[in-house]
Design goal:
The chain is an alpha/beta fold and 319 residues long. The chain has nine helices and 13 strands. The relative contact order is 0.12.
């Protein structure tokens, strides 16, 4: 149960922690359950967030935000509070010191009774956290769970080479045209994703018909470079995407440009999906609760469903 709850929480931040992996953690202490996750690169890791939430629930504490401050405070003030606690974390606690301190080193001193690890860290330089915990006398169970691997697959791919995914919004009955399909909250989520990606690939027909901006204005984030994949190079330069500051726009009839980037989203319709579906690592479908009287999306494909999350619309992750 603890690991399942940690997984569910981590998926809420999938891709938003780039270039870090999405990680979730859960904790039972004093018969109370806490669940948290890593939320953004440079911020506290999942283990630190859940430990801090639990400690703050039972103790009066200062309002600390940074990982360094929380680590230091817990090391000085834990007084054995976590000794009977059980924790589950989707990824092996980090042993190295980077932008944040080592989670494994923190847990070594806090000494929870047991830590269940969903998957060993695939980056050799970051591994070793489980051994640190075992050497401190903490019971450790390593599951190497497939669902935990699925969660960190984007991290594995972009850390080694690049990660490419296709994002498609559709109605419940498979319509992808006719203006905005997603709910307001999911439109905001897409802008959060655009803030993280390096490159957005889109088909020429979509640009000409929809005249999009393809920025992250809803969250005031950074705007990705754009690759318009098109045999025809002539476009109306008053289309908003050409007039967004701080980005480069390429118009090319091949995909060689992708090799210059690590985190790539493809947005498009039926034609682009059918042409590029075998290029991408993952497919991400936003499925609206609406149904429209328009032509359905036609594609011949088989998807392995990795995770489905219900928000105002459904987010369906697959490969």
């Amino acid at each position: 149960m603890l690991l399942k709850l940690a997984l569910q929480e981590a998926w809420k931040y999938q891709l938003l922690t780039y270039p870090n992996p999405a990680v979730g953690a859960s904790l039972i202490v004093n018969n109370k359950l806490f669940v948290s996750s890593h939320k953004k690169a440079g911020g506290p890791h999942a283990e630190v967030n859940v430990l801090w939430e639990a400690f703050r629930f039972f103790h009066k504490t200062p309002n600390l935000q940074s990982s360094h401050e929380i680590h230091e405070y817990l090391l000085k003030n834990h007084n054995g509070f976590f000794n009977n606690a059980e924790m589950a974390v989707t990824l092996e606690p980090c042993s190295h010191i980077g932008k944040t301190p080592s989670c494994a080193n923190l847990l070594k001193h806090l000494k929870p009774k047991k830590v269940t690890i969903g998957y060993k860290d695939p980056i050799k330089e970051h591994g070793g956290g489980a051994e640190i915990l075992k050497n401190a006398g903490i019971e450790v169970e390593i599951l190497n769970d497939k669902e935990c691997f699925d969660l960190i697959e984007p991290f594995i791919k972009w850390s080694k080479d690049r990660f490419i995914f296709f994002k498609l919004a559709q109605t419940l009955n498979g319509v992808v045209t006719g203006g905005y399909i997603s709910s307001e909250s999911l439109l905001n989520w897409v802008h959060q994703i655009r803030d993280k990606i390096d490159l957005l690939v889109i088909g020429g027909n979509t640009v000409r018909i929809d005249r999009p901006t393809l920025d992250s204005r809803r969250i005031k984030g950074k705007n990705p470079d754009i690759l318009i994949y098109s045999k025809h190079k002539n476009f109306d330069k008053t289309i908003p995407l050409f007039n967004v500051k701080g980005r480069r726009v390429f118009i090319e009839d091949n995909l060689e440009r992708i090799k210059d980037y690590k985190f790539i989203m493809i947005e498009g319709g039926e034609k682009l999906y059918n042409e590029l579906k075998n290029l991408v690592d993952w497919k991400v479908f936003i499925v609206s609760h609406k149904m429209n009287m328009m032509e359905n999306f036609k594609v011949d494909d088989e998807i392995e469903i990795l995770y489905v999350e219900k928000r105002d619309d459904l987010i369906m992750w697959g490969r």
